[in-house]
Amino acid sequence: MTLTRLRLLNFRNYESLDLSFDEGVNAVLGRNGSGKTNLAEAVHYLSLARSFRSSDDEPLIRHGCETAVLEAEISEGELRRTLEIEIGKGAKRVKLNGKPLRRLSELSRLVNVLLFCPSDVALFTGSPSERRNFLDVSLSKQSSDYFRLISRYGATLKERNALLKQAQPDLALLDVLTDQLIDLEEPLVSYRSLFLSNLESTLPGVLSRLRGEATGAELIYRPFVKPGDGFKERAKKAYEASKESDLLHRSTSVGVHREDFFFRFNGKDVATYGSQGENRMAALALKLSPYYLIEKEERKPICVLDDVTSELDAKKIENLLALLKDFHQTFLTTTDITIENATYIDVASNKATRRNEHGR
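RESULT FIELD:
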């Protein structure tokens, strides 16, 4: 998958921008605060119609303007797509090949983007919700069935929590909603378990290449109940055991929305025992590893690495650049770097300019 052209109108600090890109590494260079991350954000936005920096779209619209527009040309093997996203205050419109896109959920499969940004350094030391979000986004890109299941789960969970907040909850309805959650949770837990197992097959190799030495890495999944035969019976017992607490606190305390997973680095929990540098390497390896799970070359995702090199020493930058040779297309933001055969985009004064071919 390749982003061949991107046009922006009133997006963040860009009044107007029109750039073409190549396969391989596209190095986005400029001083801090010049707008490099805004360009990376625009590339990532094509995948989810959601910013990785803000839960609100309004900051994406240039000050004083009513709308922002992103237009992109994407190639996937012999297939060519045009995508247009118009962001308004309180609404957005998406067109694929000139026709309205019915569901935003389709974007992540049309434009698959892997992202690493500075906040990911705290992926393992931060809230479990960040790790669950990684699972849900990654799996939704791979499987429309997973997206459907997790969406239905979220709606049913919301309904159950609303019932618990009532002065006198209908206990019969509570049991019905609990059974509906359990029906959805059985396949969700299976999906998550298989995905983490598959990731674990690629993760040690990716981490070892980034570190420049053989490194052990494990992902430990903590489902709310054990998957496999008898799942529904175990889940019902877990919900029954928590029912009194749920009624007291007016919230659902067990389920896939409370799950977590951990990263073991050379046999130790990286969040507890790892240095900041080890946590950075672990998070980067985890974010890049899904690339290797996609078999079809034309379906390989675009990679966006925002400010990934600022805390890496020269050797680890060299290791990262060697790893990126595996990747079909990467956008790398940094203040200064020299990369063989890279395409360079210079960012300054609210403008982004492509140099001549491969930085010449």
